[in-house]
Amino acid sequence: MPELPEVEVVKQSLEKKILNLIIKKVKFNDINLRYRLNKGGFSKIIGKKFKKIKRRSKFLIFEIERNIYMLVHLGMTGKFFFIDKKNIKYKTSFYYTINQKKDQKHDRVIFLFKNNQKLIYNDVRKFGFIKLYNRSEFEKNFHLKKLGPEPLERDFNFRYLKEYFFKRNRSIKNILMDQNCIAGLGNIYVNEILFLSKIKPSRKVVSLNDIEIEKIIKNTKRILNKSIKSGGSSIKDFSSDNGKKGLFQQHFKVYGRKGKKCSNVDCNNNITKSSISNRATYYCNQCQK
DNA sequence: AGGCATGTTACAGG
DNA sequence: ACCTGTAACATGCC
Length: 289
Known about the structure:
The chain has helices at residues 4-18, 100-104, 135-140, 142-145, 158-165, 172-176, 187-196, 210-229, 248-251, and strands spanning 23-28, 50-56, 59-64, 68-73, 78-83, 89-91, 107-113, 118-123, 129-134, 271-276, 279-284. By secondary structure, it is α+β, with helices and mostly antiparallel strands. A five-stranded antiparallel beta sheet has the order 1-7-8-5-6, covered by helices on one side. It has a four-stranded antiparallel beta sheet with strand order 2-3-4-9. It has a two-stranded antiparallel sheet with strand order 10-11. The chain starts with a helix and ends in a 5-residue tail after the last strand.
């Protein structure tokens, strides 16, 4: 579910809720996430506080007192809920509508604070993970080691991408999804970026000219910023109890639109679905060259 | 019932 | 070393 914009939105909303609350207890309903949780290890965060939350790529980094770091990846379906003193449950981003009953089943880890508020890590498919590190372990951990630049930072620019593409015989879609090239993009946004840039996903990067590379950079920054502003959009609203349709479809110009009319007003072609690097790939055969 | 799903990683083979 | 494809992880939805 979550690509860079969604993770950024989660970070921002958690910052407003959990910083400086004293952790009283951690409860484990299921320790078998992508990596098995070491329950005992969590005893060292009892009595401490979350001091800071950072995002790198799709990872969340929680800084806890005394040089303890908690690294979280949401995988495909990870999400956080916050429960306040009146037992009101808050989603930590607008894309998810709360459905009490369904949700609870997938509450995997619960952080209970001293003032009786709670932070819940919920994950249907359990591809996400939570790992605790001390500072030196954290600095050595392999997850963040090889990541490419953040797409919204200055070092993701024409020079960098042109150089990275040089002599690489891979498709543009494959390379944009490679976290070592650019950190934080996923399948949905890469489909969208290539549609906006009018580039066919199967094009080899060596065949891209300078203007096309510039377009990719501009559109990447534009779509990620727009999505963060609107609260993260790459998600289905998979609650069914309020009868509202998800915001999912209306935000995307190609993703999930197989057989539907191309979003460009002057085009009558239908969107094609294929598979690149084993991932669903949508494009307009007319508009994307 | 079978296929598909927003992510990451390991491995086999070219 | 680089590249590709496949599978695996666990669960739910259509």
